[in-house]
Write a structure and sequence with these properties.
Elements: E1 3-4, E2 14-15, E3 23-29, H1 44-55, E4 60-65, H2 68-80, E5 88-92, E6 106-110, E7 115-118, H3 132-135, H4 137-145, E8 148-150, E9 153-154, E10 157-158, E11 167-168, E12 173-177, H5 178-181, H6 194-205, E13 209-213, E14 230-234, E15 237-242, H7 251-262, E16 273-278, E17 283-285, E18 288-290, E19 298-300, E20 303-308, H8 313-324, E21 329-334, E22 350-353
Parallel strand pairs: 1-8, 3-4, 4-5, 7-8, 12-13, 15-16, 20-21
Antiparallel strand pairs: 2-6, 3-22, 6-7, 9-10, 11-12, 14-15, 17-18, 19-20
């Protein structure tokens, strides 16, 4: 049974681990909402199979799936794709959509190695109507895992926060954007300003310093998620996407974010190391600019999965990340079809940290 705790995680010594810390599992939700990939849904489950095939070599993959029939179909596809089914577990739970970075639990861990769940409110990025089942996913997962559950509340209301809007180094730093967490457009927590959000993130994720970037990339329907912009790759290093074409819609915003990062310091006052990642050439489908970005990679045990787009910059992005993760495989996952859903690899995954104290 899940246990609801009324105290804040930080008060009990919990923090949000960095993505590169040891995982017990990766959570995904099997794709089913065809309107997310209009005219291109058919290849999407096979892309998920490829993702699971790679991840299951290194850790468990836990999959939210709607029904017994859907589980049988997914299992058959995974088997045909060569995935290790011994490392795959299914949880019968009907979701609205498959972008579980934003509605699955954000896990926290204490010094004793206990792992717990923070259950933030999800409201469809303050834009879409089909979100109520997704919002219930953390409780279902907490029930399955028998974990303590924290529900962040401010001013008598559950706090809205999506996993793609933040990135942490596991040592007290958190990256986010003003466009997502503070804007009045697609406002997640109306009336909660910068100081209020910083208090909430400190209390519930064990954060000591919030680093604020400005705006997200073109085509991003989340209104500024940071996981398309800049990511920690170790406690002191951030990779940030950069656009060289002055005529591109992303040029000015990415340049501004890069300059902000270069002036940022950690909680001890030391400058961060900033590494540039390129952007692919703009990806369009049916007249729509899609949010293609190499920053939407996912770090798992022993492997880093990187979205690639049949673009010359794929090689540069993969080589850059391979240098930054010498102890992991760095593998490209073809994502031109996947990004029609307005997200790629980081958006569809959520890591569950391994229990146990650090040695």
């Amino acid at each position: 049974m899940a246990r609801l705790n009324q105290r804040t995680p930080a008060a009990l010594g919990y923090r949000m681990p960095a993505e590169w810390e040891l995982h017990e599992a990766t959570w995904i939700a099997w794709p089913h909402e065809r309107s997310d990939w209009p005219g291109k849904f058919a290849p999407v489950p096979w892309i998920y199979c490829d993702i699971v095939r790679h991840l299951a070599r290194f850790e468990k993959v836990r999959i939210l799936i709607a029904s017994e029939k859907a589980e049988w179909q997914a299992s058959r596809m995974l088997e045909r794709s060569g995935a290790n089914l011994d490392a795959v577990e299914f949880l019968r739970f009907e979701t609205d959509r498959s972008w579980c970075r934003d509605y699955c639990p954000i896990f926290v861990k204490n010094r004793a190695g206990d792992v717990a769940i923070t259950d933030w409110r999800f409201n469809g990025w303050a834009k879409y109507d089909n979100w109520t089942r997704d919002d219930q996913a953390p409780e279902a997962i907490a029930e399955k895992l028998g974990m303590t559950l924290f529900q962040p509340v401010s001013k008598g209301r559950r706090v809205v926060l999506e996993g793609g809007s933040i990135d942490v180094n596991g040592a007290g730093l958190l990256l986010t954007t003003e466009e997502c967490l503070l804007s009045e457009v697609q406002s997640r927590n109306p009336g909660t300003g910068r100081a209020g959000m910083e208090r909430i993130l400190t209390a519930h994720l064990g954060i000591r310093k919030v680093l604020w970037l400005k705006n997200g990339i073109a085509g991003d329907d989340t209104h500024g998620h940071v996981d398309d912009l800049a990511r920690f790759v170790n406690p002191t290093t951030v990779v940030a996407v950069s656009e060289n074409n002055r005529e591109d819609a992303n040029y000015a915003n990415l340049r501004e974010n890069l300059e902000l990062l270069r002036g940022m310091k950690d909680e001890e006052g030391r400058p961060l190391k900033i590494i540039k990642l390129p952007m692919p050439a703009p990806v369009w489908f049916d007249g729509q600019r899609l949010p293609a970005s190499y920053a939407n990679f996912y770090i798992a045990n022993g492997i880093v999965l990187v979205p690639v787009f049949n673009d010359p910059n794929d090689r540069i992005a993969l080589n850059t990340l391979a240098r930054l993760f010498p102890d992991r495989e760095v593998t490209g996952i073809y994502s031109r079809d996947l990004v029609l859903g307005l997200g790629t690899l980081h958006c569809l995954t959520q890591q569950q940290p391994a229990a146990g104290a650090l040695l």
